[in-house]
Amino acid sequence: MWAYIIRRILYAIPILIGVNLLTFLLFFVVNTPQDMAVVHLGDRYVTQEAIDRWIVTNGYDKPTFYNPKAQGIDKISDTLFYQQSMRLFTFNFGTSDTGREIGHDISERMWPSLALAIPSLLLGLGLNVMLALLMVLFRGTQIDTWGVTICVALMSISGLFFIITGQYVLAKLFKWVPISGYESGLSAIKFLALPVLVSVIAGIGSGVRWYRTLFLEEINKDYVRTARAKGLSDIAILFKHVLKNALIPILTGVVVLIPSLFLGSLLLESFFAIPGLGSYTIDAIRAQDFAIVRSMVFLGSVLYILGLLLTDISYTLVDPRVRLN
What we know:
The chain is mainly α. It has a domain at 109-288: Orthogonal Bundle (MetI-like fold), CATH 1.10.3720. It is 72% helix and 0% strand. The chain contains 16 helices and no strands. It is globular and about 80 Å long. The mean pLDDT is 84.
């Protein structure tokens, strides 16, 4: 098992390097520092002196990959790639284009994002799996038919509808929860209740249909027929056998959501004024703060690769045959 884990970690390293290199090329080769300066300064008639000053102030005036004027190791280290890209591997995010410490901002804003994402993920996953199992248990009946119909209807509705409706009905009309905002500590519960509810409801349609499809594929396999021939009830078969054998695709679906645990939901955090990493990224895009955007892209890739690694490890617990691959 340890050999399998080490092999997966070694696979992840070149992927992360490749993502980092591609991100650097997009931000500093395709989109040059001069282009960033013009966009950031936001003036059609900005002078070349102002552009050069902005580039020097933000440290974008160095050679891209190789500095022929430097001595020794500085030929590599005193370059744009090393100082703006390689330092990310040590999670040194540097400062934003406005002078703020990006690492400090991330460490503060990750907690509201986690407070929103973790309950949404756990409640949504549990509810979707239970509803999907219920529909499979009553497959071919009116419960299954109406369940699929409602799921398709929910999938056809934009997430904005759930956000605006929830804010209007629960916050404005009934005044059960605040319409937006955030407070730390236990007071955060009243601010997070509505966005968590919206997140869970908005994901029911696609989630339940996905899990229902997985369970229906398992329900027709030989081991299910064998278990039924031994006299096991349908409920016991679903929970003891079907659910267990469907865990690998379920885990694969969950790993996609792992980056959102830290990076937050861009839409929810923006509409509900939650100071998480999602709104942090949106604000950086609006302000044309390229340093923050680069850092968040790198952080997202790290979290996604970490999620894939954790999923591969969890596969070995669910299905020991994976260890042989």
